[in-house]
Amino acid sequence: MASLYGRAPRLVGRNRVFFAAVAGDRGVRSTAARSSPQSRPSARPVASTRAGSACSRPDQDRSQRRPLYRCSPRPGYGYVQVSPPNEHIQGSTWWTAYQPVSYRIGSKFGDRAAFRSMVGTCHAAGVKVVADSVINHMADASGTGTAGSSFSKYDYPGTYSAADMDDCTSPVTNYADRWNVQHCELVGLPDLDTGEEYVRRTIAGYLNDLLSLGVDGFRIDAAKHIPEADLADIKSRLTDPGAYWKQETIGAAGEAVQPSEYYGTGDVQEFGYAYDLKRVFGNENLAELKNFGTAWGLLPSDKAAVFVTNHDTERGGGTLTYKDGACYTDGWKCQHAWREIAGMVGFRNTAAGAPVTDWWDDGGNRIAFGRGDKAYVVINHEGSALTRTFRTSLPAGDYCDVQSGRGVTVDSAGQFTATLGADTALALHTGARTCGGSAGGGDGDGGTTATGASFHVGATTRWGQNIYVTGDNAALGGWDPARALRLDPAAYPVWKLDVALPAGTAFRYKYVRKDADGLVTWESGADRTAAVGTTGLLALNDTWRG
Model-level pTM? Predict the structure, then answer.
């Protein structure tokens, strides 16, 4: 999983999205990598690059309009789930990838060579790949697929014929009837007879082909429409029995097929986790999340694959997305690249396995809690600022707030004082002890940066754009737009950020604007220059140069 929110984004949408990383039960890891542009053009598309590792979902190159897969560095991401790579029906809408024509690797996102290259690139960055796998059904259409195969409903030459379909050729109508759910057609899509030997062997052959291309695991689409015994048989034929396996098994009271039936095959996706977060953040109080988890009737954490939103729910509005709490633009969002989300990956990796401790709430929409002596988070989901001294179990010392990029000092009693703006958050963990010199903000006594620069720039933006600063000092990103520091738009159209710099530091800097699709635009004119004084913050009051 999208500020991209707009000219003066409130972070409520992002606070909601990162809650899974704060309190979730599954972590990811990867090695680090970085690439850094060396020049500063006036306008240039820049791929998301920053220390760490992650892959984006398949995207399209906007400059050349050609399909490709991308994998770009991000901090701490361990896996990426990619869209189904096999041949499917023609069309630009997202759901066409879920109507298979054959198991040839050739989708609208790229061919076999492109897919293999993407997997290899991700592996080189320390990121594993999970392939979304559509093995319950085939396409409800006729024509020519994305890899050139001719087909019609119930006839997919070289792959399946009508004899390989289930014995019910009408839509699923009764979810209280197991036979109807697992033998009839999901929204009219031809249902494969997964109890048949040929079908099982063919599906296993496809999954093994993906394994041969380096895929590390599978998400089984529409798994509840496939008997668990059939999936167990197919999985037993994999060349890598340890490949990760998670299943889409949406549970609902009164239905004949329940997620718990699939525990023996692999993890199951816990949709209730996402639905509950949507309800609480949207209509209830965050204080209610104190015992969030199995006490709410959610699946056991060792069986559940939790998420905040996915490709289905993001479009249906049933879960939290980038659309919540702010205006937004259409197009690719690259949520994985947002500081507020990317920073929480390292938080989750550090906090994995640590218990929830030091809970505090105001009875409403302000909460704070720790993850043992590993991490601590504060969320202010109210319309006004919150100033408070928080008690943690963290070791004393300096930390980087991975939400804002500002420094925080925890004293010997495990306490720190902070002020959070409306609909913002703060997150600390022992894996981020410094902000690499880019930290401004409070210390343990609620003070401010001793010396440094206080950037203020007047800049009007469109929805989906944000203003950053970079310069010739490492604390400013060393002229690398991927490491530029995002300014706070709370006082829009003035964007602000305090940056800690040693007394007497002379530096050059410029502002850059980033669009939701990754386009970076440098302000015009010569480099700006400044020098930090012997005490306090140097106030820089600038205006964007278009």
Answer: 0.72
